[in-house]
């Protein structure tokens, strides 16, 4: 018997502390623009903390990047405004718009501002908790909501849980927690005359703080949900179970209003409770300065690149370390560039900031910048300032000390270009650096197609993986994870 390899160093904490950003010089600590700048700075620090694969938190990255899809341009519009009064006016408008998405967004703003030693300089309007609502046709609709005993008791009356079909399963580290998400297709028990024979209902269950895992996809042909010890237990088939501290349910059913639960909701949901767009004033999306517009497009596209982590198949592909290196302190830098009194000097400062980002990014960021520059018109000279892109790296062997971070199973892959009916299994690992490669662990992903077998228990996520690959068979920690696919596994490295 060969001895086990030497144990790996103790892993770093699952979630690294985010350094406090310093408000840009010349701004009042209570100004809206200072708060916006701090939110940008902290967002990029979150990206930097997740660059180490041991602390990679996919959901945190997605939530953070989502903020800046519609709020990057308003931030730049505020920063480049000509006078302190107009800067504060546009910043306040942008903050109100950002905060109007809901209570969770407002809490994110408060938390990030407080971490920077700032407070939001105005009262955020109270947000009604999400609830069941009526669509454009007046039909009642469910929302993503925490599981309750009432919801669990109603599920078997609406759907045939004994004939459930597991469509996808994701389990991953989220900070210090282990979270899971399952998508299940179920036949309806209630009549839906207009439904096509192939039109099934489905629901997604999000399990937060998973404490126990025992999954066999070959046996996952039914679903049960029960309260257990202050948490929830989700049964899969005859033996499978996942236990978690909290659980949310999202029902996707076009005809839900005809179900027993829908009819009960129809009697209680007011007729005027239609889904409405946010009520705050929308900030302007027009940027005056040519170079400010370019800088805004580049930073927005960089956040879109971060948001690729939304899909498990792309979670490892964003060069997070290079993105953080490039845009660290960008909130304060953008505000400082816009603080010049002269319009020409402001625009020149944004040009200098863009070139500085090119220098910081280096070859790793060339693909991101090239895509971002496609969003900008009439700037043919800028691609010439980029260095040559980095040569693709040669994947190294996965050492025994690698650690399992996430697993994603799709019964039928939804990715473009994949063969119809082809299933997919992705195994995400944190790989330690080589002896001369610094301290940051990198991500590596193994992909297997048409999985025929998948057995998983909680022990697979504890300690070194001791990965074993033999043809289409993959094993982690002596069988704590066992997966068998139709062909050999392929390897994908992170883009850095």
Distance between the termini: 37 Å
SS strand fraction:
15-25%
The structure class reads: alpha+beta
Number of strands: 17
Would you give an account of this structure?
The protein is α+β, with helices and mostly antiparallel strands and 496 residues long. The protein contains 12 helices and 17 strands. It has helices at residues 32-50, 58-67, 72-79, 84-99, 103-115, 149-158, 260-266, 290-306, 320-327, 330-338, 343-361, 366-373; strands at residues 133-134, 140-141, 145-146, 165-174, 177-186, 201-216, 223-228, 231-236, 240-252, 403-410, 424-431, 442-449, 451-457, 468-470, 473-476, 481-485, 490-493. The chain has a 15-stranded antiparallel β-sheet that branches. The radius of gyration is 25 Å and the shape is globular.
Short description:
The protein has 496 residues and is an alpha+beta fold.
Could you give the topology of this structure?
Layout: H1 32-50, H2 58-67, H3 72-79, H4 84-99, H5 103-115, E1 133-134, E2 140-141, E3 145-146, H6 149-158, E4 165-174, E5 177-186, E6 201-216, E7 223-228, E8 231-236, E9 240-252, H7 260-266, H8 290-306, H9 320-327, H10 330-338, H11 343-361, H12 366-373, E10 403-410, E11 424-431, E12 442-449, E13 451-457, E14 468-470, E15 473-476, E16 481-485, E17 490-493
Antiparallel strand pairs: 1-2, 3-9, 4-5, 4-10, 5-6, 6-9, 6-13, 7-8, 8-9, 10-11, 11-12, 12-17, 13-16, 14-15, 15-16
